Amino acid sequence: MIARRGKSTRGVDPTPRPDRHGRHGRQGRSAVVRPPIGPLDTRFERFDIAVGAASDFLRSAWPELRDVDFQIGHMPTEPHEDGIPRWHIDREANRIILFRVPIERLVRTHRDDELHRRMMIEGTVFRAAAEYLDRDPWDLGPERFRYF
Fold this sequence. Notes:
148 residues, alpha+beta, 4 helices, 3 strands
């Protein structure tokens, strides 16, 4: 006698699974509600959030920066005699372009953790905005650095 898949060879039905289990022991899913997926957290998204937070602070603190568009570029296209630029300023178009790859890869922090990487990105945004305004970066956020 050949045992068939799905049939009990002893003639006794297997015990039914509880209702909370679906196929392969997983909980039931519907077509409308998918399983929860954690938030996507990529380097680009973290970079974008850090640039957005710093640029929003600068726009609120300095009226000269309210119309400036902070954009993110991957790599500079033009060679520079001083090395690889971290940002490009276009005053005619009111634009500051921050280059993500040189900022993340070429700038070294003394500690390699999320806080110091974010501080490095925000510091780059402050230096680019200071160059746009022809000011010192420390002048852009005096209240922010009062404790130093």
